[in-house]
Amino acid sequence: MRTPAPGSAADAITVRDLRKTYRLPKGGTLAAVDGLDLAIGAGETYALLGPNGAGKSTTIEILEGHRRADSGDIRVLGTPPWKAAPAFRARIGIVLQEATDSGELRVSEALGSLARCFPAPRPVAEVIAAVGLDGKESVRISTLSGGQRRRLDVALGIIGNPEVLFLDEPTTGFDPAARRQFWELIRSLGEGGTTIVLTTHYLDEAEQLADRIGVINQGRLIAEGTPADIGGPELRIPRVRWRDAAGHHEETTASPAALVRDISDGGRREPLDLAVVRPSLEDIYLQLIDSNRQEPALTGARP
């Protein structure tokens, strides 16, 4: 999908120097988000990755308007979210990692009830079809499978026809088949022009869905780019593995073809167990986190 250049007037989300600190029980403060800059284009699917405690949840809660920043210029659809007018809520959708229980409501009842809260909701039948819950309209939510319930969570998130959709760990607990079906749903939303902000611990999910990825650690954005180029060429150097009479060998090289020619005697013989391994997104992510590992920014804490 073609997206606007980050930082352009077409950005759905812009963050400049976002800072948020928390007071600690024993005194002092912890910098959860420490000078974060971010720009997400309208219609873009953006994955925000990072280890636990990196500041992802705080950042997303601020973007959703559930938490106020200490400082910084933060705009979602051109508006500071924590002081936006009620109409702003109709323009965003939120799918939490832990969804609230709708009791004994039926699927169509839950969606219809929520739809009445929005000025221009999507038709209930259209949303049910979009998330693959056809035939489940009259089924009680408590009887749905885990995968079906997660689809309903997304349906509740998009019933208001949002321009921006926040997805927090959307496929936690899914089996592989259900995850891939869910990915198709998210792709269809992105192709329809919805801006999607995704947090996930599944690196393959980010690689499959995101137009761009941002990696956050200790409250700072440490890397950003497409799944194909994030981390830069220095983190994408392949490894060549092979075996010969002297044993097993492994060598990191920016020119794997040249090395293979050398060890194969110009192509006249094939080394045993030959493999050229390129770093996966998970490999690159772990290198980024390791190279930026530091102690949390504690201020004035008592021992």
Give a written overview of the molecule.
- It is a single chain.
- The protein is of the alpha/beta class and 303 residues long.
- The protein has a six-stranded mixed sheet, with helices on both faces. Strands 4-1-2-13 form a four-stranded antiparallel sheet, covered by helices on one side.
- It is globular.
- A hairpin with a 2-residue loop joins strand 10 and strand 11.
- It has helices at residues 56-64, 86-89, 107-115, 124-130, 146-158, 176-191, 203-209, 256-263, 281-291, and strands at 11-23, 29-41, 45-49, 71-76, 92-95, 164-168, 195-199, 212-217, 220-225, 239-244, 247-252, 272-277, 298-299.
- Among the domains are: 1-43 and 51-87 and 195-233 and 279-303, Rossmann fold (3-Layer(aba) Sandwich); 237-278.
